[in-house]
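Many introductory courses stop at the sequence. We go one step further.
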Amino acid sequence: MQAGRKACWRQLQASFFRLLCLIPTGFPVRSVDMQRATDNITTRQGDTAIIKCYVDDKVSRVAWLNRSNIIFAGQDKWSLDPRVDLVTKGQLEYSLRIQKVDVYDEGSYTCSIQTKQQPKTSQVYLIVQVPANINKVSEDITVNEGSNVTLSCLASGRPEPVITWRLLNPLAEPLEGEEFLDIIGIMRNQAGRYECKASNDVATPDIKYVNVVVNYPPTIRKTQSSETPVGRMGMLQCEVTAVPTPEFEWYRDEKRLSNTQGINIQILGTTTVLVIANVTEEDYGNYTCVASNRLGVQNASLFLYRPGTGRDINGSACVSQSLWLLLASFACLFFKC
């Protein structure tokens, strides 16, 4: 037992003295023969890095070190990391290979060479880049028109990723914002799908999306009156923009209309159509379309009229319009305009 301990102690001493002979005094130093700065090797997280070192037949000892830790001394592996091994293509190459590189592998690596003349060292700094990754982004939101909105997009990577925003409308122009995109008094035309892109040129940019819904009260954008003879089918149409989708009501004077015999109310999203199957003299007149949601109400007047009574298809009075034009002409002549 005593003899075994002595043998083990002698082996440790031998290794220790071998290392002292191998590593130059005041390590790390740069060889006088190598008049250049430390080389940089850039690799991507998860890839394999090969750090090159070449020797000649005059070399007696060689080792790889990372900071102050010995990785290899000759062919003896000191590192316990299974990802690390040597690449020795022939007797002149003594390169270090690191598989599945990670950020903690970044740092200075030294190939230390002992020759008969003098020791030499070759230093390489390994830079590990990490692709941009968006790790937190705002959830889809619904807001009322005029509200202030802040969208967030947080990303990591090495180097630090650049974050850009776009609203994916037909123009899709870049927006001013980085990690946080502030929208003051959001309008209905700013609703849509927002794209957050994080890029650092290491890999394909990471992209995430945020859907923004903007609620606003109804606006009647188009009405269609009807010029219909007796006995034919008349149709009045009312087209609205609103979020959320509005509810519709139809009125004849003060009376609310419903689906009854001869009258059919159709609703197609944000458009409603009042259909009168068989127009009679009593059906001619003014109708009101009312659109409402929880943010507001708007109404418009439409007309069902017999042919030749002078109302245009949008419900305005052609006779009245002509009369106003005639009066304007007389006024212009009177005041010599």
